[in-house]
Amino acid sequence: MRFVKATIIPLLFFILLSTTTNTQAQTTYEDKPGFFTPVIESLYLQGGIFEDTQLIGPAVGYRFNNQYDISLHAELLFSKLKYRSINNPTLSILNLGVTAGQTNRWTKSLLLRNELSIYHSLNLNLENHQGLTDPALTSILGVSSLYKSFRISDDITFMPNVGVLAGLGDYQPPVSSGNLRQGFDGFVAGPQLGLDTKFSLGTSFSITLKPLYRLRYNFKYEQSGGTLTLNVIFNL
């Protein structure tokens, strides 16, 4: 109940940004209905004498029209620790995420992107995990970003963007070097910076290279941390 009540803040944050913008809009990279696939939404591999960990997370999204889209992300974490005696703890976790997106165009080259992401994890296997806290994640994150597009050529568009984020999470991290996507505990907020580049490869297909830096301040623990990610999105 505490977490449900706390989610009101980012929900209002997202709704306010969504309803106060121009209604002449389109999705960020394409304006026709179709699928898009973030290629490396989650990917982490760790092997050695102390730990074997694999984190993979396929994702797929769909544009309903020239304004709204939704994406689904299924993240799988497999990890085995090798340094805790014979009974080495092994875990497998399924982390499910849904992201609702809205894109509003203010001018020909200036647009606002709003996203709301909700994640929840399920423990599939916690073999020999006695005495260790069971991992758990439920979080919600709202992001609003302003994009400015520069057409470099007929096939290349540069889209630098700057935004703000705010979210709430209830997170008990796994005993592993792999970290679940959108895994944070407490209330977080901060800026983000992206340098997206879109490559058009025909009338109905494009690839977007999406480097992104986020700086999050956690008000519960009074600390901040930055993350740099790189994703590749196929727009169909």
Q: Could you walk me through the main structural features you see in this protein, from its secondary elements to its overall organization?
A:
By secondary structure, this protein is mainly β. The chain is built from 2 helices and 13 strands. It has helices at about 1-5, 10-20; strands spanning about 35-40, 40-45, 50-55, 60-65, 70-80, 90-105, 110-125, 135-150, 150, 155-170, 185-200, 205-220, 225-235. It has a 10-stranded antiparallel β-barrel. A hairpin with a 4-residue loop joins strand 9 and strand 10. The longest helix has 12 residues, at about 10-20. It is globular, with a radius of gyration of 19 Å. It starts with a helix and ends with a strand. Residues about 5-25 have low confidence and may be disordered.
Radius of gyration from CA coordinates: 19 Å
Measured as a percent range, the helix fraction is under 10%
By DSSP, the count of extended strands is: 13
Give start-end ranges of low-pLDDT stretches: 4-26
List SSEs in N-to-C order: HHEEEEEEEEEEEEE
Name the structural class.
mainly beta
The backbone outline, from C-alpha atoms, is: globular
For the report, how would you describe the main beta sheet? 10 strands, antiparallel, barrel
Give the DSSP E fraction (strand runs of 2 or more residues): over 45%
The pLDDT mean sits at 86
Q: Gap between N and C termini, in Å? A: 40 Å
